[in-house]
Amino acid sequence: MIKIIFISSFLILLIIGWQESNPAEPVNYDKDIPVWLKQIIVVMTEDQDYYGTKVYRYEWNGKFIYHIMIPISSCAYCEVYDQEGNKITFENDSAFEEFMKNRMNETLIWEREK
């Protein structure tokens, strides 16, 4: 009986965690992605140097933040933008770590096809 309660509790927690990490509605590229970001994505689509690049949207400090992750040199070329298209420059490593720790609702909105 205790095993059944333990397994049931585990499954319930797993389902709740999955629901919180997966938004109910997917991103509509045409409607939800800002024009300035679409322009960057067009460039990355046409340029071979962006192989493997991904663009994620997060919520951070009550706003959408867009994180362009370029998998060269362990994110040496990554860029973070606010929802208006202003590039965010982190003052130091701890400021970037704060962003990484407190960002929420990760959504992959674009990935460079191989």
Characterization of the model:
The chain has 114 residues and is an alpha+beta fold. The protein has one domain. Helices cover 40% and strands 23% of the residues. Strands 3-2-1-4 form a four-stranded antiparallel β-sheet, with no helix packed on it. Strand 1 and strand 2 form a beta hairpin. The radius of gyration is 18 Å and the shape is globular. The termini are far apart. Residues 5-14 and 19-24 have low confidence and may be disordered.
Number of strands: 4
| Residues in helix, % | 40-55%
Mean pLDDT: 80
Q: Report the end-to-end length measured between terminal Cα atoms.
A: 50 Å
Task: Point out poorly predicted stretches.
Answer: 5-14, 19-24
The string of secondary-structure elements, in order, is HHHEEEHE
β-strand percent reads: 15-25%
Oligomeric nature of the chains = single chain
What would you call the shape? Answer: globular
User: Which sequence of strands runs across the widest sheet?
Assistant: 3-2-1-4
Provide the number of structural domains: 1
How would you characterize the largest beta sheet?
4 strands, antiparallel
Number of helices: 4
Structural class: alpha+beta
